[in-house]
Batch of 2 targets.
Target 1
Amino acid sequence: MSATSNRRNKSTAGSLRDSNKKFGLAVVGRLPVLKTQDKEIKMSEILPVITQLAIVVFVVTSMLAMGLSLTIPQILQPLTSGSFALNKAWPSV
Amino acid sequence: MATAAGAPFLPKLAQAAKGDMAFSVALMVLLMVVTVVFLPLVLPLLLQGVEVNPLEIAQSLVILMLIPLAIGLFLKAHYESTAASLYPHMSQASSTTFMLMIGGLLLLNFRNIIGIIGGGTLIAILIFLAVSFVIGFFLGGKEGNIRSVMGLGTGQRNISAAVVVAGQNFSDDPTVLVFIIVAGLIGLVLLMPIGGELGKRSLATGED
């Protein structure tokens, strides 16, 4: 990275820091920026990653939990038996 | 969205509604498999020029949903004690990431959600969700724990399948993708308390 670009980045980060010194938190757009000693972490960059990870982990763990709590016959019964499905939906049939 | 069914959230909604869990998983798997076949056949008839790649839809559903479900079922069938010890951790992880996911999606789409309030889009989403839920609920028979699952399963659409189709066909129009995500999110946020209410009523009437 060139010296000019470095200076520009430092200046932008510096102005954000100055304007939010008393809160220890800067706002870029609508999402906050977490400050560590060496660098700033934009929440707008982290949040999509965390959310995507949460979606994947949620889907995988909920499917695993369903599999761990049920048996294959329990799941297959409504799918394989037409009369079972009808009885479940309309017991009078 | 209307042609994409089999959402992975169905067991979670069924859990909140104290519905039949085995039936919810069976319904979810059935809807998922039918969607992979039904969506590519019907959508081009409804929307001219739309192309759907069934393999692309099936890929994420198989990897993220069917394979973990099969692993869980295998462990339950062959290593029951391991399955029993793993279940609480998976259940806890699922609940925690569910909350994290809802919070994250709400924060990320806050502007989009606010943007559709007051317009016809929100009304269209609400009518679509209400009609879907009511159709499923009232065609779900007489048993409360089945009927609630049917209502929630019909109301909650398969967002991932709809997103794949939108990505393939409407990549030049981001509003389509935004609409699907916001509609899915609103559906989830609305159906969760409805599920909770159904669960309370189920407990009050003494049903399992």
Target 2
Amino acid sequence: MNGTLVATTEEAPREADIAFDRLYRSSRDDVYAYVASLVRDPAAAEDVTATAFERAYRKRSRFDPSRGEPRAWLFGIARNAALDELRRRGRQAELAAEPVDLVTVPAHESAEASERRLALTAALATLGTRERELIALKFFAGLANAEIAAVVGVSESNAGTKLHRAVSKLREACDGAL
Amino acid sequence: MEPFRDDDDLIAELGALRPTPRPAFAAELDERVAAGFPRRSWLTGTPLGPRFARLWSLPPRRLILSGGAATLAAIAVATVVVAVSEPEAGHYVATQSSQEAKPRGGEESSGIQFDAPVPTVTGHVGSSRGDSSASAAAGIGSTGSSTTGTGPFASRAGHREVERSAEMVLGAEPTEVADDAAKVFDAVHAADGIVLSSSVSGGAAGDAGARFDLLIPSAKLSDALADFSAIDAVVSRREATDDITAPTVRLGEHLRDSRAKIDGLLVQLAGANSDGERAEVEAELSAERRHAASLRSRLTKLDRRANLSRVSLRIETGAAAASSHEGSDWGIGDALGDAGHILAIAAGVTIVGLAVVGPLALIALLAWLANRTRLRRARERTLA
């Protein structure tokens, strides 16, 4: 998503609000998916998601378009909020053992499909925390590699390499489980 | 069970695991976003609440601008306060000269000296003319002898003998000192006065100046001071009077007594019958004549002090002189001077403020950076 959040804030606050609203609507579910994968608690994920958007709203005037994409900026805020929540709760950010209510298995699915999904969930649990975060940012939140790099604070090529390794490792874990 | 065919197959399956928010939560969040995440603080519900919320919702840049404007206003107010409370140079000099004034003591001094009630601040000199003579009428002597028929203060004397003195400081530009000094000589000459000593020096502001010790006939003192005041800006002016009526009257009485005694001794000498008696009277006559001469000399000095006023006149350059010009011919140069003065005060206030705020801001900045680093590391540790 290109464009500015705040560049227009001082000139026309309404436009800034519209820009933020656009960012919110395009990212709400993605942020929740990423945060829920990180904190592994639906209630906490809702609180953190709301906190992240509120922080972003308050800081919208500080956003500098020259320093990155709005989505990367938003997910950086969400990441900090999620990690703060995890620190507050004294828990480690483990993507393993996804909560049951986060892994929904449709009733009409075949047993084989359900088995594949559970195997994938178990394979995710074998990945390291940072690898799982990359998976969540890429495939749950739908961020581009450049955005992921900005969120986790590495270079774009480094983010791509790490993501590739995480996917390969996940696939190996799935192949082993199946 | 069939494994994933490729990465695309795996990714497609991952997408199915994506957590989704509850519709109720999504709707609630939508409402909060639409409302702009209203804050609740302890001020909420109070009259200050809306204003606080409006202030809090301002972008940081506007807050910084507002804070900067408030800081500038504070500096301006502090500058005005400092400028107003700063003592005026001319007035200070005048006060100091007044305090430094010492009574010119002599054995015939009345001991009580009056500062003429003239304004010693630049620009108010014109109203001082003649005031000293008025105050002189209140002069009293303190060393009067009770033997005088007019009492210790010579209060019944028909004519008061008043010694007058004056000190004046003029402010001038260094280039004007020579001209001003020449005008001083002219004014002294016009008043039939005497220049006891003078000294004129050139140079830069503060170094250049002139000093005059003058004797001006008392009857022309006021006119002479007026002429001096017209030469350049008056920084300070002080006039003093010393009532010397009592010692003058007393000396006159003593002199009359002495003369009467001399006349008596002369009569006694004429009637002396023996050499021994004649020698004794001559010795006494000689002593009395010396005493009379002494009394006459002291009386002459008193008359001279009453007739001639001592005036100390200085021409100064530099800061004191500059301040003196403010009250007289205020112009563009003075305006620039005032502006520079105010800017200097503002700079001083700013420097003092920075000296106080700077270290605190630096400490706050370092603390913020340290906390930020600590927080970042703590967050990364959470992921480890």
